[in-house]
Amino acid sequence: MVPFRGYGWLTRSTPLALLTTLAILAAESANLMPDNVRWAVDNGCRIFVLLRVMRARISPAYLLLWGPLAWFLPITTALLHFLFGGRKHAALAAAKKEVNRVAWRLSDEPDFGGNRFRLLGDPHGRDTLEALRSLIKGAQRRISVSTYILSDDAVGREIVSLLTARAKEGVEVRLLVDAIGSFGIPLRLCRPLQRAGGLVARFNPAIPMQGKGSANWRNHRKIAVFDGLSAIIGGQNLGMRYMGEKPSNRRFRDCSFLITGPTVAALERVFIADWCQATDESPTEFASLLRERAPRVGSARVEIIASGPDCEGDPLWEAYEKSFSGCRRSITIVTPYFVPDRTLFALLITAASAGRHVKIMVPRRSDHRLLDLARRWYLRRLKEAGAEILFFKPDVLHAKLVIVDGEEMVVGSANLDMRSLFLNYEIGAIVRDPAAIEEVTTLIAGWEGESTHYTQDLYRRDRTWTGRAIEALAKVISPLL
After folding, report:
1. Residue 458's CATH number
2. pLDDT tens per residue, range 162-177
3. Are 113 and 159 in a shared domain?
């Protein structure tokens, strides 16, 4: 077997690039570089940024954002784009493929059929919290949890406390948090868990420069796997803004899903690959775990799709493109942020213009004001094409749900915006189960009663020059938000 090369060498490239750039900037500011050398360095940096932007293939706005910066501040922009720009990392993808090759040698192809699929859709997230409590307490061998945000509040502390108690009892506990989404919190919050024998890792730290790839690539996945038998995925992070025992008017409206059955193995494989990337461990250390398969317990077919900078292509985007292009009757989308790329947007416009029932539900106001501004043009065009646009009023709507023709559903952590589609590490599940889809359809119907339809009065400033200018600016910078 070929030894696992690991990810450590990728970590060292970031500080090396930073030191090199700082040395060049220092030499330039001190007038130590001859004019011809400065000209070559400046134009080399411009070409570097241009090639990386063109390879990203996100949107023309992405080029419009980075192009002027590269022209006027070439060296600084090259450094910024190296640290925060870009979309795919060839070396990172090669390392991830090495993880997958080892995983495939150690285990059979996942079976996506024979699952139970349960909606956790309480308005205040009580059922999600209760499911986490029950599964953590009931785990016998291992618990693997990955989250974007771990909050230092009652919910976050309770989850860590439960994990700590299980670690003391000998259960193998792994907790993976995104280093930016949970910036500064896990270091103090998770010390008791680490002292109890639990393992805690931060994904792609940006400060200090320890990350693997761009600091703009965040692990937005929410995965909790218990003994390889059950798993929870969805959009809810571990904090009071997403779930709690008592009702709160500050809580996001969201949902998660409990999966039991063979598909859990695919989710655990995603977690292991992320864990290996964060810790530089070899997947061969998880050989016995990767060989395990949960028994068939139901009839739901649930296919897992992982998408991110370390994947070839854009699997989640490709799943949406296939579903939208094959739509015969209806498309229902629930998302907190709606800034699609040109292809998906064109497919939605085509479907609405052809008489398909296209329904888009977004929050009246999300927690990202600039994305609210950026979405206006897309929503207005869809409304003109015949789509139904709904604004959820009571709280921030944070759910991510897509249903096509009432036959196929995509759920998970991904928003329908360019960050989730092209930049972040995301997890999705394609569900083909009539009972589960009907349950989620009923949930959305209940939200419709708390929503208002799109009217021009809601966006009066759309018709002013100032409103259109703000809208255009928000669209330009939306790939970075």
Report:
1. 3.30.870.10
2. 999 999 999 999 999 9
3. yes
